[in-house]
# Entry
Amino acid sequence: MINNIFLSPKNLSIIDTEEKISLPEKIKEDVNKLWETKLASNNSLFNGPIYSIAEIVKADDYINIHMCRSSYSHFLHSKSTGFIGDHVCRSVAVSALLITKDNFYCLGIMAEHTSYPNVIQCPGGAIDPIDIRDNIFNTWESVKREVKEEIGLSLEDNIVNNASQNKYIITRKNLSYIGICFVIELSLTSKELDEIFIVHQKNSKGTNELQKLIYVKRETESLVKFINNENLIKIDYLNNLLLVDIGKEKCEKWL
# Structure
């Protein structure tokens, strides 16, 4: 499913058009039927708001992604069809590639009650209306909120050594998904970060989207071992992202 991983342009804006996506009646019916099926097998799912890409506008010095409003049920329906057709939900999400002081990548294993049980990925989630300022999504605020919700870590100045301006853009086939991944170097060791997460897990009382953190040394031998471990379920972008970050795969500017 992964199409490519790119360096993010400096001037990238995610814009809320305030418009609601319009779906034909037949697709609405199919969306509702699938949602009822999903809910029957997992009643903890929530049909919350999701933003879908309406248009991408590119100029010499900026890229604007215009978003319209949709729902999680529409996203799941689009996923079930392989994101093919004229009325798919094309989402935008943020994530954090966290690097500890002792040079480990911090990754999360999704909880059993989520849509991606036991899948390893970077902490993050879909953009949310709470992060809109003057119709612009503040993606840095989005990723800070996601890291706080999933790990219990506040990304304040004394915790972050460097929040790289060299963000990565992750895309899937037909631009069905655009991910904005912040590379964040922490002043905490992996042990210190894990202690924060353990307390957060106790306080969340089973509601957290992550069930566990795992750490992978930021060097070639450890990454190759991690990538080749077939017993691990990893989100489709993860292997490529880590290889790009250590310079083993090329990464060009987006669009």
